[in-house]
Amino acid sequence: MAKRSDGGERPPGMADVARVAGVSAQTVSRVLSDHPNVQDKTRAKVLAAVDQLGYRRNNAARMLSSGRSRTIGVVTLQTDFYSRAAVTSGIENAARAAGYAVSTATTASLDTFAIGSALSRLADQGVDGVILSVPLIHSSERIEQLTRSTPTVAIDGSRTDATEVVAIDQTLAARLATRHLLDLGHDTVWHIAGPGQWLEAASRRDGWRASLEAAGRAVPPPLEGDWSPASGYRSGLVLARIPDATAVFVASDEMAFGVIRALRETGRRVPEDISVVGTDDIELAEYCSPPLTTVAQPFAQMGALAVAHLLRHLADPGALPEPASVEPRLVVRASTAPPSRSSSVPRQ
Amino acid sequence: MAKRSDGGERPPGMADVARVAGVSAQTVSRVLSDHPNVQDKTRAKVLAAVDQLGYRRNNAARMLSSGRSRTIGVVTLQTDFYSRAAVTSGIENAARAAGYAVSTATTASLDTFAIGSALSRLADQGVDGVILSVPLIHSSERIEQLTRSTPTVAIDGSRTDATEVVAIDQTLAARLATRHLLDLGHDTVWHIAGPGQWLEAASRRDGWRASLEAAGRAVPPPLEGDWSPASGYRSGLVLARIPDATAVFVASDEMAFGVIRALRETGRRVPEDISVVGTDDIELAEYCSPPLTTVAQPFAQMGALAVAHLLRHLADPGALPEPASVEPRLVVRASTAPPSRSSSVPRQ
DNA sequence: GCAGAGAATGTTATCGATGCCAATAGTGCG
DNA sequence: CGCACTATTGGCATCGATAACATTCTCTGC
């Protein structure tokens, strides 16, 4: 039974509105749901009553009765990394525009259990659908079951049977970066990849390798970071000790910052001695020194696309799960330049 | 009426569990709510039935009946700025730990209408309480009413009657930064502030001014940015033209990146010619060149504190709204140094 | 051995909105 | 002028869980 604790001052219900407007509750419901079959005069009366009472539809009741909540859940990794925030932002905008609320469940780690529990928290809340914005490496019976019972769209790098996938073409991103460096005249391009479990990272690595192979260049062994600037810094220190490395494609701008710092500290100039291309185009990329050449990722757009897919799926559960992807774009700034043969020796 | 669309396969309800366990629905409810007055044997039977049926409590029904949703809403500004993401992160963690779900409503602008509509979206969703994580400058009747009817905790810089406030001591942050620079021997310290409407920005400005005055130094006119690196860059260009500016305290790391870039481009060295202190301690601050001296803000901690306050208030609506604040901390890196009298002339 | 406190469990009304179906009021057309 | 038909509107059961209250059972203490 509902709370009676407050001083008898209960917020108005549909029945109250109906009474004031002199119609039935059902009609009020129809007006509020934009049903076509309501006379303008009646609609006006109802709306006036709604306004007068300051009535707001009770979402809980609505949800219980209709079985839908007009809420979409987002499972996302809890980090400060730019990319996640940008995607979430895009999702929220698109959802709001479509009249959906957004409920977030963050997970601190990527293991099956953590993701599963984030999913079930959302399921318990009764979300209509879920956007999985984490790389789902291993699935589990529990996860499969949850994604089967709740419409789910996976962003970039989730592997489940019951989900549609929306992605940015990361292979293309890597190709753009690699080609740019080769076109500048570099013999080959090194790569600092993201963590192997992330599909995004793997795709970028593949795209980079493919580009080099297509151009008939040597493929240096890739280094691996964890997206953090600190890991970029560590990789940068390694790179600095390799005399003939003149160009590197880094899988995130944040790591690129670390790489550049490491290179400078060890006396390698950017871009004179070594060119660096990042990925993401975070806002600070332009204010790094030197300003970072990078591959911009349409994160917000992807978030919006994910919402669109989810809504389409909700509207018509039978629709075919056609995968979609959006394209990244190269942004050339000042961290890349043609190789200068003379100065490819580390000073350190 | 609930959806009948699916093939008659309705998820199990409490009644089903009750039937399987051979008890009443009420008892099931008690078991699930950890009521004390249930025999262990009964509890076990119920839990077994729950497990067997894969039963999950229906949140909508729960909410409708009990009047509470165990969900807290967060109103936040839609940006990629580090600080907002960090706060939200802290909120989510704390909320999850307390068994609360989090629903987010972002607003693109700070005007009364936008914030009001974010608040009402949350209210419509039936959140138990709200954390206002945006600077609320002007209130409105609508907002006052919403914050009165829904328990609200404001983070840093919201001005409403009906809200508790949790904040980081920004005055202290500014004092730490300013004192650090004065202690290094600078005659005075310039300031690049955040947007005037943000209480955070105003407090930092006040703290900075107070520190200078306390030390009997001249107070230069503050410049103002909008938190973005681009605005920092613009302010940096102005600063570069002021020959006797040897130290600057910037109200955010992101702006500080822009400032440093502008200074370097115009030939002023950091920190030799001019010292820069940022605010926030974003992850990239350490990888700026030079590594940025900054005032670290315990954002996540503040988010957690906000949740704690809100929950306390929910548990005991009568409790006094004691304001709380957490303390920032100075992190000295390499962007600050004693002034070198010789080189305080711009090269440009 | 019995009254009465208190634990354990069941009964019932209700929360607020919606869907289905019936009822009523108009409308067009033969 | 009346019938078939449609646009409006109301009645009622229902979603799933909870709170208040009732009831049954189990022990103490005297």
TrEMBL record, chains A, B:
Ranges where the HTH lacI-type domain occurs: 12-66
Entry-linked CDD domains: HTH_LacI (cd01392), PBP1_LacI (cd01574)
Keywords, alphabetical: DNA-binding, Transcription, Transcription regulation
Lineage: superkingdom: Bacteria
Keyword Transcription appears in the UniProt entry: yes
Database matches in SUPFAM superfamilies: lambda repressor-like DNA-binding domains, Periplasmic binding protein-like I
Signal sequence, start to end: none
A GO molecular-function descriptor: transcription cis-regulatory region binding
Residue stretches in coiled coil: none
Entries under PROSITE patterns matching the protein: HTH_LACI_1, HTH_LACI_2
PANTHER family: HTH-TYPE TRANSCRIPTIONAL REGULATOR GALS, LACI-RELATED TRANSCRIPTIONAL REPRESSOR
The name this protein goes by in its record: LacI family DNA-binding transcriptional regulator
Gene source species: Streptomyces montanisoli
